[in-house]
Amino acid sequence: MRMSGAAPATPAAGRPTDAERVRSVLAAAHSMTVVTDGLRSEVRHLDGADPMGRLHLHPGEPGGDGEHRPSIRLEFTDIAPTPVRDRVRARVTILGRLLSPYTDEGADSTCMEFGSAVLETAQGRSYVGIEELDAACPDPLAPHEAGMLTHLLDDHAELVTLLLRLVQPLPTGAILRVLPLAMDRYGITLRLEQRRGHRDVRLPFPSPLDDVEQSGVQIQALFSAARRSSHRNSLPA
Q1: What stretch of H or E contains 20?
Q2: What is the mean pLDDT of residues 63-71?
Q3: Is the C-alpha dihedral spanning 125, 130, 135, 137 positive or negative?
Q4: pLDDT tens digits for range 166-176
Q5: C-beta of residue 184 within 8 angstroms of C-beta of residue 8
Q6: What is the DSSP track for 155-173?
Q7: 23 Cβ partners below 8 Å, 6+ apart?
Q8: Which CATH superfamily does the domain covering 12-135 fall into?
Q9: Predicted TM-score (pTM) of this structure
Q10: Residues linked to residue 195 through DSSP beta bridges, in sequence order
Q11: Domain 145-228: CATH class, spelled out
Q12: Are 85 and 175 in contact (CB under 8 A)?
């Protein structure tokens, strides 16, 4: 698939579009499951390299339905790097048909006819077309997000709690834990865990990031805003 790098569509309310979310999951993937010819295989050690460099997507060709092309399904699971409840943040499935033989060893030369991309999150299921994927860019923080979130939690846990001052309104009932769940160019998502269930809250950056080098300034801006706030958190002492 020729990813054009064109500017992504403007997301609603400072959130990634579905196509951006799919591209970001792929860009940060360290493994994928490939299902073809009735066989299921795990491809590991992608090391954050976009798997679309190994499997090239092509638009469907008119009149190709009569040709025998084995189906192929690529499955990706986006798991939160922090120890939150329900760590699966999203699942991405790419469906298509093989245009050239697939093997684990020779995947870099495999071409597939694109059928659809399916994004499943807590908000539901959506379908993304090849034109949308082609126009979207992965989030600039995607390859770095896991390290950034674990560093924030391991070395600056008190600052994560401080961000609760920016959450309005707080959920009713005591908050047992607050953990960073996700970070993208638009902001940070916190997971507020209670005795029964949890709630996810997005805290937007003052402005969207263009590259990872801008993340430090934007994160510090959130911390500064939280320090200025008189809002008290309800974590147990």
Answers
A1: helix 18-28
A2: 70
A3: positive
A4: 998 877 888 99
A5: no
A6: H-HHHHHHGGGG-SSPPSS
A7: 3, 133, 136, 137, 138, 139
A8: Electron Transport, Fmn-binding Protein; Chain A (2.30.110.10)
A9: 0.85
A10: none
A11: alpha beta
A12: no
